[in-house]
Amino acid sequence: REPPSEAEAAAALLAPLEEMLPSIRDAPIVRCDAGVRALPPRSHFGYVPLVCKLPVEVRGARRGDGGGRSALGGGGCAAWLFGGLGSRGLIHHAVLGRSVAEAVLACDESSLPEHTRRLDARMGELLVNLSDTGHSSH
User: Fold this and answer.
1) Is the backbone of residue 91 left (phi > 0), alpha (psi -120 to 50) or beta?
2) Which of 19, 29, 60, 85 is 20 to 30 A from 97, comparing alpha carbons?
């Protein structure tokens, strides 16, 4: 993959930026980076972060008290997904961060908002498909 072009980025971005801040035309370009921003699947609430316990057990992981179990099964509680915050992370990070911490400590994702746990079914389907093709999920 080619590194991003500083000249192309400057050509695309400087004109609109100069309209807002004319002095930017004299500022040096320090570096040019490019990346991919992954978005979670859109729900009826829009793009909402994804949170769930992953269907893997990590050696030495503490097991929960038997209360909640992931929709994916398993009792070990070591690997969690908390992603897809995007720009709404500014809104969601504190509330969801606290909820995720409580869920991890209790090893129970049932207390998380339902619309953030919507990856469970897709993850289960992926793991079933991987096991059918001879790939291991562990």
Assistant:
1) alpha
2) 60
The residue written with tokens 């991919």 in the block is: 36
Q: By the 8 A CB rule, do 33 and 39 touch?
A: no
The answer to whether residues 64 and 75 touch, using CB atoms and an 8 Å cutoff, is yes
DSSP string, 76-89: B---EEEE--GGGH
Of 29, 26, 33, 25, which is closest to residue 1 (Cα–Cα)? 33
What is the pTM for the complete model shown?
0.51
Q: Which residues contact 41 (CB under 8 A, 6 or more apart)?
A: 118, 119, 122
pLDDT of residue 78: 67
* Contact residues for 106 (Cβ-Cβ < 8 A; gap 6+): 64, 65, 67, 68
Beta strands per DSSP E along 41-89: 50-53, 80-83
Q: What is the pLDDT of residues 45-87, one digit of tens each?
A: 887 888 888 776 655 555 444 444 434 444 456 688 888 887 7
Tens of pLDDT, residues 1-17: 677 889 998 888 899 99
